[in-house]
Design brief:
alpha/beta, Rossmann fold, Alpha-Beta Plaits, 3 domains, six-stranded mixed sheet, 11 helices, 38% helix, elongated
Length: 350
């Protein structure tokens, strides 16, 4: 009886798995819902959840990355960054939600043609030159041998690695290994680059070189999605950033100067806020000042006019700048959000 019970249980599990896989394919073979504004995004992660048994590594996250920008992805270890990236490159299957690249589901061939990926750890074959390695990888991506050789040469020269072409990449420094990974990711000429902690273990010079290479790629029109703990570099590198804290998105928006958000202050911010709202401005409180949405230059003149008539003296009016370090400390380090109890075996490393 025990054997028969075990067989019935196994058959039941197989049937359940079969139907769950079938349902997954039915869902993901359907065309994703694309709104008009969504077409501006190279990467769209919408209502995304990844659950391992009882542990939610990522909980209902929405991240939008505009075409041609560098988007930083930050958060403490264990917050779900690596899980998100693994689902985005189809190394893991999402529990629910949409992960789209140029309006295509990220696991499809159409989406993958757009993508270059750089993992955190650099691993190469033990007996191969850098040049032969890149030629081989180019051929795997679909290029013929002649084209693969030409492509490898061009990229190695662009990244200043041509003179090291005959060396095994395992003998390189950490910075040069990351450059080889970058070269590999560019072989299929992708317009979306996904990088998981590319600056880890790099010295300041190597980090600067890597980030300069990423700026050049952005200037060529490529989109860069980069997970990193180096906030000082991201401050000047990224156009926008998403902060993940214990599986949840706690901030997603612009970095540095905002084109539509201004910081404004007076001796009486409560009175100022009421006045601006009466004149149909969108206003929100921000620490010791206010943030007001200003779409055109005439609106700045209007603010100065109405405050002057109300005899309110403006002490501060400037484009709002997001300070990543300050924001990170406020949202993450000083946050009251507590890390949920989880099974440590299920928890991802970063």
């Amino acid at each position: 009886m025990a054997i028969e019970t075990a067989i019935k249980k196994q058959n039941s599990q197989l049937t359940s798995n079969k139907w769950s896989i079938k349902n997954w394919f039915q869902k993901h073979n359907s065309a994703p819902v694309i709104n008009t504004e969504d077409t501006n995004f190279a990467i769209l992660i919408r209502d995304f959840t990844k659950q391992f048994k009882k542990f939610k590594a990522v909980d209902n996250a929405t991240i939008k990355v505009a075409k041609g920008e560098i988007h930083g992805f930050i958060g403490p270890n264990g917050s779900g960054k690596t899980t998100t990236i693994k689902c985005l490159i189809s190394a893991l299957i999402e529990t629910k939600g949409d992960l789209l690249i140029h309006d295509q589901r990220s696991w499809t061939v159409a989406a993958k043609k757009h993508v270059g990926y750089i993992p955190e750890a650099a691993r190469f074959p033990t007996r191969i030159t850098t040049y032969d390695y890149l030629v081989s990888m180019a051929q795997i991506s679909g290029l013929n041998h002649k084209t693969a050789k030409a492509k490898a040469e061009i990229i190695l020269k662009e990244l200043n690695l041509w003179k090291f072409k005959k060396r095994n990449p395992n003998a390189y420094s950490s910075g040069m290994k990351k450059k080889v990974l970058l070269a590999q990711s560019l072989l299929n000429n992708p317009d979306v680059l996904i990088l998981d902690e590319p600056a880890a273990n790099l010295d300041p010079t190597a980090r600067t070189e890597l980030f300069n290479d990423l700026r050049k790629l952005r200037d060529q029109g490529k989109t860069v999605f980069i997970s990193s703990h180096i906030l000082t570099e991201l401050q000047t590198l990224a156009n926008s950033v998403t902060v993940l804290n214990y599986s949840k998105v706690v901030y997603s928006g612009a970095v540095n100067k905002s084109d539509t958000m201004y910081e404004i202050s007076s001796a009486n911010n409560q009175q100022l806020m009421q006045l601006l709202q009466e004149h149909k401005f969108e206003v929100e409180t921000h620490e010791q000042s206010l943030l007001v949405h200003i779409k055109t230059e005439p609106e700045i003149a209007k603010i100065l006019t109405v405050t002057l008539k109300a005899k309110i003296i403006i002490t501060l009016l400037k484009p709002y700048t997001v300070d990543l370090q300050t924001m990170y400390e406020r949202l993450v380090m000083d946050s009251k959000i507590k890390q949920p109890k989880t099974n440590t075996k299920e928890k991802e490393k970063a």
